[in-house]
Amino acid sequence: MTQQEQTILQQLPSLLLSWYDQQARILPWREQPTPYRVWISEIMLQQTRVEAVKPYFERFVTTLPTIADLANVDDQLLLKLWEGLGYYNRARNLKRAAKFVVKEYGGELPADYQALLMLPGIGAYTAGAIASIAFHIRRPAVDGNVLRVISRILAKKDDITLPKVKENVEEMITKILPEQRVGDFNQSLMELGATVCLPNGEPLCQTCPVQAICQGYQQGIAPELPIKTKKADRKIQDKTILLLLCNGKVAIRQRENKGLLAGLWEFPSIDEKRNKTQLERELIQQGYLVSSIHPVGKSKHIFSHIEWRMNGYLVHLNYPVPEFTWVTEEELQEQYPLPTAFKFYQQALEEDIQTSLFQ
Ligand code: SF4
Q1: What is the pTM of this model?
Q2: Cα angle: 89, vertex 300, 325; to 5 degrees
């Protein structure tokens, strides 16, 4: 860090903390920032918007109020509580970490950055956030928001996707962390990134509390920052989704225990495109006793590295196929959480029931 950069950054804590005291959003996990609540909120907020997280957070901590409750939760209930948030490994890691915390720390998160970092699903950012917000330990919490804010304030053109650049920003923040209110300071930086110094070239500089020291603003280059190398294009995967119906039940199956959506329930599918005639022929060849097929439409779901382009069919069968699990619509709702990727087809199924095609 150059002398000039240090001089600029040293002004951040006082500017940001007074702004944060006036402008911080009221969020449920900020009301009682216990280590458990901070942890759950930080994990939920990874890859998910604040507004989307709020109802999930309330439901989760009400159903599982302690780390011991989380450690002992039934997997299906856990996935039900997480259903719709996506990235289900987060939920699995929470439970694994909770079990470890019960065994090793008597059910309380350790007030130690390195110990937090050892827990499943907790990386440097989350450990820093829990340590600083819940335990007032002087550690930075640098996520994408913070990298963007710092790049703009210092008019830095380094590629923020590089680990070295992130480490550098962590070092810079560590040097300016205030003695008091370190958790609030970390949150104020994140808050600035989330509400003012917005991504995608849209910083709201006119209302920004650090405009006077912001080099990116003064040089007129803030909207072009930060510099990020483009991620490799997502792989496109075509899928034909089968809503197989027989005797008032629908067929589901459980995915493998590794890879995408590991261990979750899903509708059966074929990993290729099929039109109605091709599908009918293929199912009959495989011995399915098909009574009717109706197309139910297309849907798309984007994961981080893959995009599913789906086309679905409602297929009425005269006999169930034993290789699948057959459930009623009610059981599907209550006991077999389906990933968000299948929401469109789950709704199509519900509509079909309402229009009495489900026989
Ligand atoms: Fe971001 Fe603009 Fe504030 Fe600089 S002045 S930190 S670019 S919002």
Answers
A1: 0.72
A2: 60
